[in-house]
């Protein structure tokens, strides 16, 4: 009888903590970006040269997110995980694991296609 009382709390706690972690991550990212741009504005108001500001602050994280190497790394990791899951599913005769592994393999291939398309566009520019 005591187990049923605690069994009800497991999904409630999981949902609350899952949503709580996501909300905390979003709020912390907001404050980090706000602090970055406020210090950037202060440097501009002080009359610093834009080249000095660029050297001092570096590139924002959004500019680094579009690097083509990022997609290559994601593609290779996703394909590796997909092949591993498909192999485990095949050895255990579990069709669900094989299906999930195949899905991850195709997702990894799509990341590789994006990587090669971005490299092709960079070379043509």
From TrEMBL:
<keyword id="KW-1133">Transmembrane helix</keyword>
<dbReference type="Pfam" id="PF19762">
    <property type="entry name" value="DUF6249"/>
</dbReference>
<feature type="transmembrane region" description="Helical">
    <location>
        <begin position="96"/>
        <end position="118"/>
    </location>
</feature>
<dbReference type="InterPro" id="IPR046216">
    <property type="entry name" value="DUF6249"/>
</dbReference>
<feature type="transmembrane region" description="Helical">
    <location>
        <begin position="6"/>
        <end position="28"/>
    </location>
</feature>
<protein>
    <recommendedName>
        <fullName>DUF6249 domain-containing protein</fullName>
    </recommendedName>
</protein>
<keyword id="KW-0812">Transmembrane</keyword>
<feature type="transmembrane region" description="Helical">
    <location>
        <begin position="71"/>
        <end position="90"/>
    </location>
</feature>
<keyword id="KW-0472">Membrane</keyword>
<feature type="domain" description="DUF6249">
    <location>
        <begin position="13"/>
        <end position="117"/>
    </location>
</feature>
